[in-house]
Amino acid sequence: MGKAIEQILLERGHQIAGRIDRGDGPGHNHAELANLKSDDVDVVIEFSSPESAVENITYCISRGWPVVCGTTGWLSHRTEIEALCAEKKGAFFYASNYSIGVNLFFRLNKVLAQFMRNYPSYHVSMTEIHHTEKKDAPSGTAITLAEGVMEHLPNKRRWVGKGTDTSLIDSTDAVEIESLREGTVPGTHTVRYDSDVDEIEIRHVAHSRQGFALGAVVAAEWLVGREGVFGMDDLLGE
């Protein structure tokens, strides 16, 4: 993802003040960043790993740098990050997926769920497919889709990963998410409503990572000069 973001930044006329490679450890990351003056950085784009994201975000917000984060799998710490952002009067932008197409898919998913609440004979489930290097499962995008379904289907109160706990999967109050890791797949997400007589399915297929990278760069451009916590709904609403 970093290479795609870097390419788009340069194409859009931006300068890259610093870069942290995936193989660098957390200590090295912050040593590199410490060499940058606060005024050298307008915004930080953070795509790392669930293990290092919170530390990276905390460091950057503490330095007064706006952060655009695309790392998933760390959201149990989101409340503390938002509190730090408010304390420092900083700016933080998070999305589970920065693709414009995926965010339109999020909206389509909610509209379909609104219709389906009147048809309880249909069982909703999801499948997400990603490359073998993706560490977290289910994907953040799949979780966002499940949350969108739960907003409009009152009998669905939680999501569960397929195969993680069969007792939960059998429960009628859970949205089941199947996660598959295959080759170099950028990301495929399917929402399925199945009944005894037919099946309704919507799907988003990413052909490359360019759409994710472009969305992150556009979010970074938008975030500069703002204060608060934001997401794709804020960006797309303008």
TrEMBL record:
GO terms for molecular function: 4-hydroxy-tetrahydrodipicolinate reductase. Residues 1-98 form the Dihydrodipicolinate reductase N-terminal domain. Pathway: Amino-acid biosynthesis; L-lysine biosynthesis via DAP pathway; (S)-tetrahydrodipicolinate from L-aspartate: step 4/4. Pfam families: DapB_C, DapB_N. Its EC number is 1.17.1.8. Residues 101-236 form the Dihydrodipicolinate reductase C-terminal domain. Keywords: Amino-acid biosynthesis, Diaminopimelate biosynthesis, Lysine biosynthesis, NAD, NADP, Oxidoreductase. The keyword Cell inner membrane does not apply. InterPro entries: DapB_C, DapB_N, DHDPR_bac, NAD(P)-bd_dom_sf. The keyword NADP applies. It comes from the Bacteria. One of its GO terms (cellular component) is cytosol. One of its GO terms (biological process) is lysine biosynthetic process via diaminopimelate. It catalyses: (S)-2,3,4,5-tetrahydrodipicolinate + NADP(+) + H2O = (2S,4S)-4-hydroxy-2,3,4,5-tetrahydrodipicolinate + NADPH + H(+); (S)-2,3,4,5-tetrahydrodipicolinate + NAD(+) + H2O = (2S,4S)-4-hydroxy-2,3,4,5-tetrahydrodipicolinate + NADH + H(+). It is an enzyme of class 1 (oxidoreductase). Belongs to the DapB family. NCBIfam families: dapB. PANTHER family: 4-HYDROXY-TETRAHYDRODIPICOLINATE REDUCTASE 1, CHLOROPLASTIC-RELATED, DIHYDRODIPICOLINATE REDUCTASE. This is 4-hydroxy-tetrahydrodipicolinate reductase. It comes from Spirosoma endophyticum.
